[in-house]
Amino acid sequence: MIQISLREWQIASLAAGVAVATGAALWLLARKRLSADEIEQERRQSLVNYGRIVDGMLLDGFQIENEFGEVRNMLLYQYEISGVSYQCSQDITALAAILDAAEVKIGMPCSIRYQPGSPENSILVAERWSGLRNRVSTEWPSHPRTRSSDLSVRLASVSKQ
């Protein structure tokens, strides 16, 4: 049997630690970094999967120019959670394939998805979900089992008794 001294174990463990640290550093330097658009897409996807929905109001649609000279389409919206009012904007430029910024109706009610622990983290539109509403219904939908004529007959029979 081979006897290994304490000093040899210390040298071997130090060499293993240096090898692990070097491997981790190389991995951090060589890994693919996500672009800002990819990070935003992951944020939207996370909110679609786990976010809560609240009613809000679409306030404005506007364009801004970033530091690279690109024009970005933005939507400004407002919502309220637990008595706190939030005003947020969302860049919808990456969603141009599914959303035409010119057709967005400003001033309409909308649905907002937000992160429950951090309500300022919210979205109005994503790849698989949209909180935009085309129109506001002015009619209350009738219950499928109750027609207004049936209701008036029932009320009349109750009032006779």
Would you mind describing this structure in some detail?
- This protein has 161 residues and is an alpha+beta fold.
- The chain folds into two domains: 1-31; 36-123, OB fold (Dihydrolipoamide Acetyltransferase, E2P).
- Helices cover 33% and strands 29% of the residues.
- Strands 3-2-1-4-5 form a five-stranded antiparallel beta sheet.
- The model has no long low-confidence stretch (mean pLDDT 83).
Q: What key phrases describe this protein's structure?
A:
161 residues, alpha+beta, OB fold (Dihydrolipoamide Acetyltransferase, E2P), 2 domains, five-stranded antiparallel β-sheet, elongated
Give a short synopsis of this structure.
By secondary structure, the protein is of the alpha+beta class. It has two domains: 1-31; 36-123, OB fold (Dihydrolipoamide Acetyltransferase, E2P) (Beta Barrel). It is 33% helix and 29% strand.
Span between termini: 104 Å
Output the CATH topology of the largest domain: OB fold (Dihydrolipoamide Acetyltransferase, E2P)
Mean pLDDT, nearest integer? Answer: 83
CATH class of the largest domain: Mainly Beta
Q: What is the level-2 CATH architecture name of the largest domain? A: Beta Barrel
Q: Rounded to an integer, what's the Rg over CA atoms?
A: 29 Å
Low-confidence segments: none
Number of domains: 2
- SSE pattern, N- to C-terminal: HHEEEEEH
The fraction of residues in strands falls at 25-35%
Percent helix among the residues? 25-40%
Global outline: elongated
- Overall strand count: 5
Q: Within the largest sheet, what's the order of strands? A: 3-2-1-4-5
Count of runs of 4 or more consecutive helical residues: 3
Please outline the major beta sheet: 5 strands, antiparallel
| Secondary structural class | alpha+beta
